[in-house]
Design brief:
The chain is an all-alpha fold. It has helices spanning 2-15, 18-26, 41-48, 51-59, 74-80, 84-92, 107-113, 117-125, 140-146, 150-158, 173-179, 183-199, 215-229, 232-242, 246-276, 278-287, 289-295, 298-318. It folds into two domains: 2-199, Alpha Horseshoe (Serine Threonine Protein Phosphatase 5, Tetratricopeptide repeat); 215-318.
Length: 329
Amino acid sequence: MTENSNDRLRKAIDAGDIAACLAAIDAGADVNCQQSWGFTALSIAASRGDVSAVDGLLARGANVEAKNHVGAPAIFSAAINGHLEVVRSLLRAGADPEAENTSGETPLFAACSKAHHEVVREMLKAGAKTNRQSRHGSTPLMHAVLSADIETVRILLNAGADPLISDLQGQTACQWAVSHHHSEIAGLLRSFEETRMRSSAPSHVPPTHSHSLSGEELFADAEDILLRTMPPAPLAAVKRVRRQPKKWTRILGIALIILGIMMVTSGIGVIDETSSSSSVAARQAKTRPRQEASSSEVPYIVLGQGVLMLGIGIWLTVRRRGPQKIRKG
């Protein structure tokens, strides 16, 4: 008797016939009987949005955590179809808002992918995590982007979704929006990204200037950067020069500029000459690969040293002086 009732229940589930499911259960079938794909009468009722059937099955002992072939319990079916009242009934019956399917997604992912605003809010209220990542690294925010619904994206952002999280391919939600040509959503995400980056910046970082920097301020910043990045030997020489009178500093600066221009010109000339004879160099590389490789680097080294000399020379020539003493009288 029970076996026949279970068979009838499986057939009713396959057919999506809720009334037949209830009749088979009342005739003795197991309320949690699953058909070949793992669906139960509860998951069918949830997908149809039949609140009375869901409540009736729950009263008969239906298991809210029974999963189908992709590991999804009944609340997934309700969430992806936007059946808010069914979602509420299942949550009241103990459904887990963080239940995972085989892809590591939760019901919140399902609701976001179809832009069901009220279900999204209900899942968040029940404790669903906004920054949960699937096995592929995707987040509910990324699924909301795919739905092309900016309101769902806004709901998640206001609930604390992090737009800077990347999936396994290194793509953020904003990059998802750009790749799918959702420009309005991309703009919203960019503004939230900037806000998040500003709020997470170290406290010692000085605030951004609200006014345009003067030429003197820009030069001071450039001077500080040059001193921090200069190699030790040139840095020591420059520090000695800075203590000399301004006239000698400028003379040295002009000399370095001339030397830098000569080195840059020489390096460029050798590079051009090397490029024009590339066929000969290729034949020589077959017999002396190591020597050719090292000699080919020389013009670039000369060019780099020339640029450094030129930069130091310009800096010494036009660098700002310290504050001048005010003569009395």
